[in-house]
Amino acid sequence: MEGATAELKHLLTTPPPNFSHRSSNPHAILHASLEHIRNTGDERFLFLRSSLEVLAIHGFFHCNTNNVNTNSITPFSNEEEQLLFHCITGLRSVTLLRWDLYASSLRKVLRDLLLQLGLGSFGPLPRTVAMACLSGAASFYKRGWEEYSNGAAAVAVALAEPGSQQAYLIGMMDNLTHMRHFHDLNELFECISSLLLRAFHESQPLQYGVAAMSASFLSLLVGEFSGGNSSSRYNLPLEFHRRHHQLFENGNTAATANAAGGKSGLDATLEIGMTSLSNLVGYILNNNSSNNTAVLDSEPFLEMSSSILTLTYDVISWEFGAGKSKWESGSSTKEGSVLLRPPKRWRETLINPDFLGAMFQVYSVVRVDSSSYESIAMKKRGSMAHLLRQLLLQLSSIALGPIFEDEKEHGAYASFLLDGCLNVLEKIVVQFQQSNLIESAMEELISAEVVDLVTILSRITTNFGVQTLSRLPTFQRFLSALCTTGQWLMESSLNECNNVKGDVELMENVDWKNDAIAQILQCSDAMADDFWLVSGKRSEALAVCQALATLLAPLYGSYCMCRVQMSSMEEHYMAGEGADLDDIREEISALGLEEEMSSASSLGRLNVLGSLTTLSGMFQQCMPKLLSLFTGPQLGSEITADMAALMEEARMLIVCACHLLTDECPGETPAIPSAVSKACKNADETDNTECIAAIPGLVDILMKVAEAQATRVSTYPEESTCSPLLSKTLLWFFRRWAAAYIFPTPDDYNQSGGIYQTWAKPEQAQPVINFCATLCLLYFCHWPLEKEVQDESTSLLLALAKRGHFVRDLLINATAFEQITALHMVCASLRPNSSPNLSDMEAIGGNLSPALIKGYQRLPYDDRARVLTCLLIGCSEMKNEKASNMLNGCLAAVEKAFKLLITALENKQVHCTNINAQESACLAISLYGGIALASEMSEPERIPHFISPSLPHLSGLMTFDSFADDLSICGALLRFFRDYSEQCIGMLDRHQCSVLFSSAASLLKSYSEHHCKNRVVPRVSEDLDFEEEQKYNDVLCAIQLLIHLGTKDFIDVFNAESSQSQGVGAENITDVIFFGLQQILPLMSQGLLHFPTLCTHYFSLVGFTVETYPEKMCVLQFDLFKSLLDSLLFGMSHSDPLIAKCSLQGISSLMKEHAKSNALSNQLAVKADLIEDCTKRLIKEVVFQPFIWDRLEPAAMTLLPLLACIELSNLAPLVNMISQQSGSHDRLNAAFEKLIKPELVSKTALNGREGRMVRMKFRTEFDAFVKDVQSFLITK
């Protein structure tokens, strides 16, 4: 043994062979040398010998737990401690690697040595080294669990060969003083249990330490079997880990159960943990009652307590069922589940009211409620209290199931948990409401305690539900506590913000308070949306609703007041200090606020009338000041801090009101929230006039503010009082509110009366629609370059236009809407630097002033296009003559302007290099794009009827070299054709299809010549961003255009009519798709596949095209076919399952076509092993990988035709080659033999029912094959 340490140190300071980092950095050499020794198996046992040598030098192996002479043990230096740690971890790694090469007697003695070293049987080790020893022992126990479960008598122990180095080391370790051997698992658990029990009888610091390490060992053992916190590398297949997970959980063999005292390993660990926890609870309560608190504050005792709590937490958190464990690669369980479902056999252990009560008593003793403790004791107590709370959180997560006999017992269990949490939480709130201060020494502890307690309450609410909780005697106390706690948190945050004068960077307590408030809001959200409460009409549910409205809903007022004032103070500080805003941080903050406000709205809807009253009162205080600001004298362009704070206060109030009254419902018809509609009805179904009146009152206030702001903008657009952010927020409110409340359809709600009648008649809705249209008009003309304001303005106008024919009839009667229409007609040909034609103005009318026209001219082309989309949808009612005239005027203005441009270019009245001609082209293309996007109009067939004659001229713009070379014009055309084909493809007749086809072909040809050929795409970096991807937006548009051109609707419509008339055949239509694809393929192979959006659309196009037209793809030139196939092979192992599915379907289609018609013969003549290579890559890169489970079916349907394309004589050598390269040769060969059945493979090309049955059977066989091979190929 002597000299091992010196030899090891020498190796660790010498660079290993093939050391790639030629530097003198000693740390790099150290880690490389350690890795080299581990990988080579440490044949000289340097890790073990050095460990024993270092320990012996420092006086270990001369004492034990019965007679410890700590004076004989000398401390380690930092270098020795580090060396010992690396030796222990290296010994674990090497032993697991060479497990089968070591004699079982050596493995057992190593296991027992590491366990006793970690437990301190030979003396106390540094914690990092002791934990490494215990981790190694836990790993060895798992590795030999089946062997150890059978007991010493059942399995013959393989002894080391006499005279060998293994025999020498075994003998040396056996002769260590008081070296103990564990012959079976029962003996192990008895030993650990006795060590934990002894600590409570002897009450010595050394015993506390031993007990702490004993509990830590069991935690590590549970972690090894669960896979949750294991750091060991076993180099064994998944089937080993799954089997041992099941063995540890169930002990499903008699030998295993007997070895663990009649229990599984998990049950035995639970019993030890709960027994130790019970002893700990009793010990703490006894010492506290006798005022012997000194022992409770000792560091060793607190360390032991924390270890026992951690052990109990780890056991209770066990994921039951082999299919739910982390070792199950194909597990379909949902991520993030918070509820626990322990088995019935744990019932007596967990469901014990006396034990729960004692737990809370212990918590009240352990928690730190003052700063009188020493810093170390305070920290340890805080850590122990946190672990207690985490354990209680797990106990709160036990769901209704076999562990509870009935719902009554479930409710009683909830009552114990709820009472205990409320007792502590109320005590904290009362204490700090009185002092209103948190001492700095306790700040961290109190913050963690409050967050954990409200998290437990939130978990209880989610788990047990309102129906169960409402029947508890403490339910009203629970609601009051939530409200009081939330108000205290909000008010204390407001006070802190006030103390730092709005500088939120100096608010030390804001983060944890926000976390706690978020949990309270989540809790209230869960109650408000509870199914039993929402769907219940019984008196019990109504009484609960009333309790929520009375006791919990008042928190909404405090929340709004504090959030609004804090935002106002922050804005005051930012404006006063001239601080720069961090855009990324602001975006994150806005998203967080949006989520928080959504939860808060559920809280406010518990008492809609009370919440509206609160907001109205806050508006009444804020809005008069804001209105006076907007209606006062001109103030210039400088904004003061007071002005900024006032506008931020108003903005936040608008946000609160919007979330309270409306829901964001993308993709759905906007509707009045059910809670709001219910609040406007009394219990007897009569109207609640007070609540109904409160909503229009609030809306009227906002309309006045919006009108004043917009009027100010029209007068002084550059003035500081004009806030784009405030305008955007107001427009956002009216967009969400108008879309839900104006002309609600009773059929959508199955209700009438109430709030539904407030704006349900023309005389009620017309003023509101006039107001919204006027608001949009003012912003279009006076703030044309405020991008976010224009986005919300067009969104508001579009929401009204899409509301239905009732609203559209009112919209065209709005004077402002008529003016917007007239502005479009006048400006359809006007660039920003053009002058309007007076004759056109007079002909169109609309009372347009030069200022309005000039402002509208300055609108960006994309915004003008969106406005045109709104106009077309709003004017689309064919039965209304006025609407039809307005619609025709809008379209005629675009057509006239475009014809003038084409005529001037063709007659060479203007050259294509002229900047004005280029601007006119961009404007015309954008307006046509706006028309294409108006497909939601009534009678949308009018769109292709108008656009089709212009398509050849639009694509013909690319015949002018300057236009063709300009990527902005080319990209705009690609976007237009993409949008038009996407929106209108289903409504085109034969002629329109043909025009679109020929025009798109012409466009793609010009695009290819000017922007694809010789275009070099540099290799992109791994850190991609949105701006970088935008450089290739033209490629994305071209891909999307090809996707839309290749849709079934397009081909089906064309085929339906082409049989009756002569014209271009469907096969010729597809030529444009293949032509475009051929131009894009070389680009995509040079790096663009790394962009997520481009990659997704590309594979969508390729997958669909290959699946639909495999015969054409098979006869491409070899270079193009190779590029296509390489991209498909790249995509099949992509992290995105959708991309992988498209790629696999593409390969499958190619191989099916080849199996039917030998279509790939030309490609195989160039590369004979092409199919074999595809098969090998599919199996190695997909089937054998852990991610196979999200692409299992497409992988099966790809492998089947691949196998069918390989001759049987070549199939066996291919399988044999794959098996040899992948390891586990015999098992893999057997699995392949079971999967590949010639009678199935030969029928791959069949259609009809027989073909479907073949594919279904292969899919089933493939599923079993993957589970089988993954279990022994994937190692961990």
UniProtKB/TrEMBL annotation:
It is found in: Cytoplasm; Nucleus. GO terms for cellular component: cytoplasm; nucleus. GO terms for biological process: protein transport. Pfam families: CRM1_C (PF08767). Keywords: Cytoplasm, Nucleus, Protein transport, Transport. The keyword rRNA-binding does not apply. InterPro entries: ARM-like, ARM-type_fold, XPO1_C_dom, XPO4/7-like. SUPFAM superfamilies: ARM repeat. Residues 1077-1158 form the Exportin-1 C-terminal domain. Gene3D superfamilies: Leucine-rich Repeat Variant. It comes from the Eukaryota. The keyword Cytoplasm applies. Belongs to the exportin family. This is Exportin-4. It comes from Cyclotella atomus. The lineage of its organism: Eukaryota, Sar, Stramenopiles, Ochrophyta, Bacillariophyta.
